[in-house]
Amino acid sequence: MKILIGENIKKLRKKKDITQEKLAEALNISVTAVSKWEREETYPDITLIFPIAHFFNVSVDELMGYNKEKIEQDILDTIKEYHRLSRSYQSTREFITEAYKKYPNDYRIMNIYMWDTVDCADVKDEAYLEHLDEFTSICNRILEGCNDAKIVLDAKNMRAKLLKAQGKIDEAIALYREEFPDLTQDAYQKIEQLFSKDTAEYRYWNKMNIYRYMEFSAMKCARMFWYDDSLTKQEIISKCEKIIDLFTNARKETNESFLLVFEKSLIEQFLILMAAHNGEIDDIARFLDKLLLSAKAETEIVKTDTVLKNGVLVPYKTDNILAYYINHWKTSDHWSIASLRQNKKIQEIIKKYDN
């Protein structure tokens, strides 16, 4: 952060309507020294900071150009812009690196910088080892002084990643087991336990947890199949498609929303994996058709299901889930979707639901 003390001294002196000579005389220093301060060639000696602030009747922070509220707003704006860049799939590395240089002691910026540097769950150990000393230092600073529980947990997470990268796998696993809650101890599960089982509140949060777990399970299920090297990709897709169809048929027969949550989530996860790994266009088009059909059903169900609306669908910021996905496939900047939507088969699927 640029030190503005010379510029501020000049402004305060002119506001007080005194010459450099008068200020120099009051502080018992040379006019040349004051002149150099105001030209920002040198800074006042630290022993003069309080006398200068007292002379102008301002705080030391004000004299130094430190505006706590302005800095806090700048940090918040920086974080907001970082997330905007991230959501639009633009490069964030240079942006957050500059922010870290500007605010090297802000725990929020430190944390984002650290995770942006190694921004993928599949990052190899070498990437962590490359930043071992730097990240260890950041983690230590966060754990020693930060009061934000989520940032502290992120620092512990990074510590475990660094331990694993160094081959200390048992220590990494032990850290997770000791410091991190399991699925039965997370916030939503604890909220559910606030209420008696015979109340509407309990039923609401119980259903919320079912939706969350179905969404989470679908993601894990997709990855379990996709990374099974005993099967070919076509065998994996065929097996997954059969499971999806079973859930679709069960959902239609029972009209249970939680089956739809798993169904749509599994379709979406496989679609993402196929798009990112150059899958066959026929498979991608077929899964996109299934996704939009499920989104259409979800758009109808959310009209009467407040739990679904207030839980799983919050990130979409709309009740029209079908319209969300159509717009996403028509406008997303992500390289995989941007290239796929040029395909005639993909365009036909989108057009089929875009009415």
Note down, in words, how this protein is organized:
- The chain is an all-alpha fold and 355 residues long.
- It folds into 3 domains: 5-64, lambda repressor-like DNA-binding domains (434 Repressor (Amino-terminal Domain), Orthogonal Bundle), CATH 1.10.260.40; 68-180, Serine Threonine Protein Phosphatase 5, Tetratricopeptide repeat (Alpha Horseshoe), CATH 1.25.40; 188-353, no CATH class.
- It has helices spanning 5-16, 20-27, 31-38, 49-56, 60-64, 68-87, 93-102, 107-117, 125-130, 132-145, 149-165, 169-179, 187-192, 200-226, 233-254, 257-276, 281-301, 306-310, 321-331, 335-340, 344-353.
- The longest helix has 27 residues, at 200-226.
- The protein starts with a helix and ends with a helix.
- The mean pLDDT is 92.
- Given helix and strand content, the structural type is mainly alpha
Instruction: Tell me the helix content.
Output: over 70%
> What proportion of the residues form beta strands (DSSP E)?
under 5%
- Shape summary: elongated
Largest sheet: none
Uncertain stretches: none
Our measurement of the CA-to-CA distance between the termini, rounded to an integer number of angstroms, reads 52 Å
* Quaternary structure type: single chain
Number of strands: 0
Q: Averaging pLDDT over every residue, what do you get?
A: 92
Order of helices and strands: HHHHHHHHHHHHHHHHHHHHH
In the residues, how many domains can be counted? 3
